[in-house]
């Protein structure tokens, strides 16, 4: 059996949410956003080993939440100054063989089917990056481009561990906007898989309204 890991990266401060607490800890549907996310991966496969990457100054608050709400077993890892550094810190605590999904902590509505498909495709091809078609018209530097060629990238971004660890053996670049861009920089082919529009990243108050709507449908 192939070993599976999920690195859940949650480094938000809550500034764009205009909240006194980090966005990943805001309660939606009776549970903090981050706990919804963690539960979803365990629902996909109970054998997935979870690694939660948080800023160190949020560890105590997380421990308090775990006393208040039911949670899942995981390994807590100190986050870095940037998304790249946090991802690297998470990768450093897992084995060198198997598969790893790297996921935003504030995407709590990723489906079990997408999680499992990402592991399946990553096992076959090395990478599996969740994406959806753009619903809006798109312009680059003022010029209209063919919307059908544009994909909106989501998470999880799932990899063979040996591949993504090799990719992270590099200096951080400003062009690294996600883990897929790190893998691509190292010369690895990026394979896109179909996501869905409910897999939103909750970063603003408007996103919280959508989150309540999504939960009301489930």
The CATH topology comes to: Spore Coat Polysaccharide Biosynthesis Protein SpsA, Chain A
Q: In percent, how helical is the residue content?
A: 25-40%
What distance separates the N and C termini?
32 Å
Radius of gyration: 17 Å
What summary fits the major beta sheet?
7 strands, mixed
Looking at CATH, the homologous superfamily is Spore Coat Polysaccharide Biosynthesis Protein SpsA, Chain A
Q: What would your notes on this structure say?
A:
There is one protein chain. By secondary structure, this protein is an alpha/beta fold. The chain has a single domain, classed as Spore Coat Polysaccharide Biosynthesis Protein SpsA, Chain A, CATH 3.90.550. It has seven helices and eleven strands. The strands form three sheets. It has a seven-stranded mixed beta sheet with strand order 5-4-1-6-10-7-11, with helices on both faces. It has a two-stranded antiparallel sheet with strand order 2-3. Strand 8 (138-140) and strand 9 (143-145) form a beta hairpin. Helix 1 (33-44) packs across helix 4 (112-125) and helix 5 packs across helix 6 (179-185). The chain starts with a strand and ends with a helix.
Quick recap:
With 218 residues, the chain is α/β, with parallel strands linked by helices. 33% of the residues lie in helices and 24% in strands.
